[in-house]
């Protein structure tokens, strides 16, 4: 009844206002998560060339950084993220067709870096106050090489993740409509998972770790046990896991913990928390 009595002109005005608001917000929507500390973008369309490559300008590249570069290239080739706009970016076709092509991203250490490069796995276990994960990323609009610079291997790794989030897909072509792009960032985010109160299967924990890497969550705090449950098998103390978990199947074995630790190949700090009962 309310709708039938509504002035049609008012409805059209309201719809127009909502459309204007949505368009305004869409123009500032980014696929970056989390947003970098400093972000500058333009309005030029740029696409990745068919032979796009990522290289490191330096010596003795750690193997796990090379692996991360390979994963990034695979992701850029296979990710099919489309723009969150009407038509999913179909209206960009002409601009993409005539756009300049970016052929390379070059990684390098900042000019102030001194010392020997360490592997990602080594840097990932540094204490929080010693870890350096900042980076700068520039993507020109004219097709000249993009540059990623950092003072650490971890910084390069975080920058690779950000670079991979800049591109949309249109009929198999990766492109952006926001070149040139300049980013300065240092990921500060961690995640705590409380399996004492909410049991997570090992496969789900590993999937969570994979997801964390794509959004630059760099510290995983695993709250394994507390007064609610003790789901961890401890060699020499079988009674804890026998009486402590919610059910016999909701238990983490030493092999499970090792599997999660070794599966942490996306380079974040793992912090374990065990609550030990004071009264027996």
From TrEMBL:
Catalytic reaction list: Hydrolysis of terminal non-reducing N-acetyl-D-hexosamine residues in N-acetyl-beta-D-hexosaminides
What residue intervals traverse the membrane? none
Q: List residues of the Glycoside hydrolase family 20 catalytic domain.
A: 190-260
- PANTHER family in the cross-refs: BETA-HEXOSAMINIDASE, BETA-N-ACETYLHEXOSAMINIDASE
Q: Where is the Beta-hexosaminidase eukaryotic type N-terminal domain?
A: 32-166
List the protein's name. Answer: beta-N-acetylhexosaminidase
Q: What is its EC number?
A: 3.2.1.52
| Biological process annotations from GO | carbohydrate metabolic process; glycosaminoglycan metabolic process
Taxonomic path: Eukaryota, Fungi, Dikarya, Basidiomycota, Agaricomycotina
> Which Pfam families does the record match to this protein?
Glyco_hydro_20, Glycohydro_20b2
Does the UniProt entry include the keyword GTP-binding? Answer: no
List the InterPro entries hit by this protein, alphabetically.
Beta_hexosaminidase_sua/sub, GH, Glyco_hydro_20_cat, Hex-like_dom2, HEX_eukaryotic_N
Q: Name one GO molecular function term.
A: beta-N-acetylhexosaminidase activity
| Alphabetical list of Gene3D superfamilies matching this protein | Chitobiase/beta-hexosaminidase domain 2-like (3.30.379.10), Glycosidases (3.20.20.80)
Family to which the UniProt record says this protein belongs: Belongs to the glycosyl hydrolase 20 family.
Keywords for this protein: Glycoprotein, Glycosidase, Hydrolase, Signal
Q: Does the keyword Hydrolase apply?
A: yes
Name a GO CC annotation attached to this entry: membrane
């Amino acid at each position: 009844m309310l709708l039938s009595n509504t002035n049609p002109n008012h409805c059209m005005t309201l719809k127009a206002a909502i459309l204007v608001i949505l368009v305004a917000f869409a123009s500032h929507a980014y696929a970056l998560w989390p947003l970098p500390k400093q972000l500058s973008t333009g309005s030029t369309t740029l696409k990745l060339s068919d032979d796009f490559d990522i290289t490191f300008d330096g010596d003795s590249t750690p193997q796990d950084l090379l692996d991360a570069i390979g994963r990034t290239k695979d992701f850029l080739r296979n990710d099919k993220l489309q723009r969150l706009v009407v038509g999913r970016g179909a209206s960009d076709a002409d601009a993409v067709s005539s756009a300049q092509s970016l052929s390379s991203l070059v990684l390098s250490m900042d000019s102030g870096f001194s010392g020997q490069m360490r592997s990602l796995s080594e840097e990932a276990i540094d204490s929080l106050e010693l870890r350096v994960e900042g980076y700068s990323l520039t993507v020109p609009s004219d097709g000249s090489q993009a540059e990623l610079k950092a003072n650490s291997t971890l910084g390069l790794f975080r920058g690779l993740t950000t670079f991979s989030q800049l591109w949309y897909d249109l009929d198999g072509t990766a492109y952006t409509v926001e070149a040139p792009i300049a980013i300065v960032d240092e990921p500060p985010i961690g995640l705590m998972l409380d399996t004492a109160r909410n049991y997570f299967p090992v496969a789900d924990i590993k999937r969570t770790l994979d997801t964390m890497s794509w959004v630059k969550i760099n510290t995983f705090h695993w709250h394994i046990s507390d007064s609610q449950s003790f789901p961890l098998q401890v060699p020499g103390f079988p009674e804890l896991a026998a009486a402590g978990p919610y059910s016999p199947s909701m238990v983490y074995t030493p092999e499970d913990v090792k599997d999660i630790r070794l599966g942490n190949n996306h380079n974040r700090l793992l912090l374990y928390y065990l609550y030990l009962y004071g009264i027996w």
